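Exercise 3.2. Students should predict the tertiary structure of the chain below and write it as structure tokens, then compare their answer with the key that follows.

Predict this chain's 3D structure.
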Amino acid sequence: SWGDFVYNKSNKPVKVVTYESMREDATQVFKDLAKFCFDLDISDEIINEALDYYSFEKQKEREKIYNKDEKQHFHYKGKKSYRDEMNAETYGHIVDQIKNNMKYTFGYEY
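Answer key:
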């Protein structure tokens, strides 16, 4: 599995970032990533400016400016969870395939 590859075959340090942690405190997650990946200490102000620029709302605004055909827009739905994008059967299949690895390797509970 992907988790086995990362943890058993890679000699490089790994930083796991969860979707939930990004939703909860994106500023801190990106600060931690900048430190982990590049040994950079970046201010909250700069991180928040980048997060604002790439926010769903701002990207949606830019899409409207540069592409008038809303059917081609990537950000048109505004879903808050990946689960909103799939039916129950698909979600159940994915969970069945990964739940043990996610639970024991990454601490997810399904």
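Discussion points: The chain has a mean pLDDT of 78. Helices lie at 2-9, 19-38, 44-53, 56-66, 88-106.
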